[in-house]
Amino acid sequence: MSEHAAIHAEVTQWLSQHWDPDMDLLSWRSLVADSGWGAPNWPSDYYGKDLSPQQTAVVEQAFAEFGAVGAAQSGVRMLAAVTLLAHGSHEQKQKYLRGILTGEDQWCQLFSEPGSGSDLAGATTRADLRGDQWIVNGQKVWNTSAHHAQYGLLLARTNWDAPKHQGLTYFIINMEQPGVEVRQLAQMNGHASFNEVFMTDAVVSREDLVGTEGGGWQCAMTTLANERRSFDRARDVAGRKGRQGKIFADLEAEFAIANEPYTWYPQRAGRVDLVMPRATETGAINDPATRQDIARLHIMAECAKWTGDRAKAAAKAGKPQGPEGSLGKLAASNVARLASRVHTAISGNDALLTGQTSPMEGLIAEILVSTPAISIAGGTDEIQKNIIAERVLGLPKEPRFDDGPFRDVRRNTQAPSEG
Amino acid sequence: MALAFTADQDQFRDSIQRFMTDKMPTTEIRRLMATTRGFDDETWRQVSDQLALPGIHIPEDFGGAGFGAVELSIACEEMGRSLFCGPFFSSAVLSAYALMLTGDEDQLDPWLADIASGTRRGCLAITEHSTLWHDADINTLAKTDSDGQIRLHGDKRFVIDGQTADLFIVAARSESGIGLYLVPDHDPQLGITPLDTMDPTRKMADLHLDGVPAIQLTHQPEQLLQTLLNVACVCLANEMVGGAQQLLQSALDYTQLRFQFGRSIASFQAIKHRLADLLLEVELARSAAYQAAQTLAACKNLRSLSPSQANKLTEHASLAKAAASETYLQAGLETIQLHGGIGFTWENDTHLWFKRAKSSEVLFGTPAEHRERMLTAIEDAATTTEDAA
Q: How confident is the model at residue A228 (pLDDT cuts 50, 70, 90)?
């Protein structure tokens, strides 16, 4: 028996002994987490089995074939896990990783601020050590799921005399305390996926400092590097809708909450898939000018897809990454923007409407008011272009004016009482 | 579908690049573009003998190297990058494919083999009035004399390398429909008028056929002219991507060298963002051209394509042509702009590629025409699928 077949058999054996769809979700996931099959690529000291990514895929495959629910892996919780596994203390891993896998704890990211978005390292939320506690004051923004999170991944300034990247520290903050106020942020498309988080003398224990004091930037980079992957998992869950058993009802309820911030994301990307059906349905397909627009969009979307395929093919062939690997986000912005224009052209006067009586029960309107987000979220187009120009094309950097002690750096949110 | 090149293909590309760097500097391009012939016989002989490029995609039975459309596209891309002056596109791409689509064994043996070896230079005469090679546009007539000799009567326009070719393949109409005819040599009844082209590196001529004796190429596959147009578009798209990459490189080099206000102008975001946008455009067009080459390579028998193969080839060929045309022109415009005033001078080399971009934009149909052609192919494919279901 091959190694992978052996793993598959072992997992299936374990599942046939333990799986019970009438269990509640939390009890089942506790079993999974403690068995090591919930996160088999994690270290065996921390709820894992030291398996490789390929072996882990076999485990996931076995769960899927058996029809069993796995550990909670969607959302920001996985970013927390990756960061803690890389930088956390033994105590932190013991304390937090299990709750991540069982789904008991939700996590959110507290990085961006009103005064530091693209320039994330300019954060001015402060943490000051008073006795055995860090006292946190400041405001964070764009915090997905913060309104039902138990813990936050907090980036705060602990040293105002160090250069900006070196004065930041990474903390785990308990969101359920009087000093933390979460306000949902209404968006122009009617959804409220993000929050503002106000911290007023909020408390973080010394044990919840992750990594080293002043080493927050490195930890934040680990979190951000894994940001893209975290959304893939939610889709796995969606495929299990309609199964019988308490566990599936629990799962559906959990998913409805967890996925709520993301329901408009496909519309944000422009819904190129709806263009031809809509053009046929409305008759816009017969208008020569609209046909040109539709064709332009098709060309751009296909080229973007093939460029991604080229990047994957090169990686598979063991070639160094070429420019094609860095262009996906910028290409996606252009596709969404053009798609929004084409949908408008196709809908004509109906693009004046929104809600249930508008085309596709409001879906088209949601595209039109959601696409402006895609060129901002996760790094603006302008930042993407800087990265492409400097790292891919090797062009010289802009002169910077933010070296030296952070307290002397000019910024747009100046708190007079600093330091 | 594989969109990564093999190590052999990378090596093949490198060998062409080295040759072109050596033999086709812009001083040589400028010398050749000022001549009527437009190319150097010795360089053409080396391209044929040393690199064996004209036969790269021609079967070994007919003296070629037996590779396919992907290798041919690599050659086209590198020639586009270096602005190679020579009858490669007219002879090795257009004429060779025309023969492979229509010739029988006896016809392929002398003519295709001669094209593979570079000893003969073919040209393809299809265009009369319309750009997209519709059958309805072919008014040139193939008439059979009482002695059984076929003679061609009509006018052909924009024939690439028509003034230097020694083999003419002409689309004409007879009672049996549209076919290709071969004029194996110059003839007193064949009038050739060189055209004053904006792009002096791509020579063209008009042909006047006043009863020119010709040989009928045996096969008349369905959609012959459209298949040829697809081949032309796939290869031209790859050529254009090479040219666009060269323009981008020149813009990158110049903006880093040029200092104003005490800093390299490439350090300004106003410049950087334009270059990042241009890189994105070039890479997107490159993906389209590479994909189109793969699609062409996957058509194992171009003479009898299934409806779905034909639709897919048309979709991808027109998509690549439209994408690469717009990108190449945009790269030309941006590169001139990023050079400032010097970019508008004759002395600066940018206009050589700009004019090739301008010529490639229109050749075989404008981007708008190809967008429409692509969309029609997508609709046809959908209809065909529905009919089948």
A: low
Search chain B and give the residue with CA nearest A325.
B283
List the domain range (segments joined by +) for residue A316.
264-378
Q: Report in angstroms the alpha-carbon separations of A43 from A30, A79, A379.
A: 17, 16, 32
pTM of the model: 0.91
By the CB < 8 Å criterion, does A317 face chain B?
yes
pLDDT tens sequence across B109-127: 899 999 999 999 999 999 9
The number of distinct structural domains making up chain A is 3
Specify whether the CB–CB gap between A297 and A335 falls below 8 A. yes
What is the SS3 assignment for A180?
A: strand
Domains (range + CATH), chain B: 7-117 (1.10.540.10), 122-216 (2.40.110.10), 224-388 (1.20.140.10)
Is the domain of A293 the same as that of A346? Answer: yes
> Residue A405: inside a domain, yes or no?
no
Asked if the Cβ–Cβ distance from A299 to B279 is below 8 Å, we say no
Contact A395 B275 (CB under 8 A): yes
C-alpha to C-alpha distances, A329 to A262, A336, A417, nearest whole angstrom: 18, 11, 40
- Residues A126 and A218 occupy one common structural domain: yes
Q: Is the pLDDT of residue B138 over 90?
A: yes
Residue A300: closest C-alpha in chain B: B284
Residue of chain B with shortest Cα separation from A332: B280
**Which residues between 237 and 296 in chain A have a beta carbon less than 8 angstroms from any beta carbon of chain B?**
276, 285, 288, 291-292, 294-296
* Pairwise CA distance, residues A364 & A281, whole Å: 13
Q: Are residues A216 and A122 in the same domain?
A: yes
Instruction: Let me know if residue A76 belongs to a domain.
Output: no
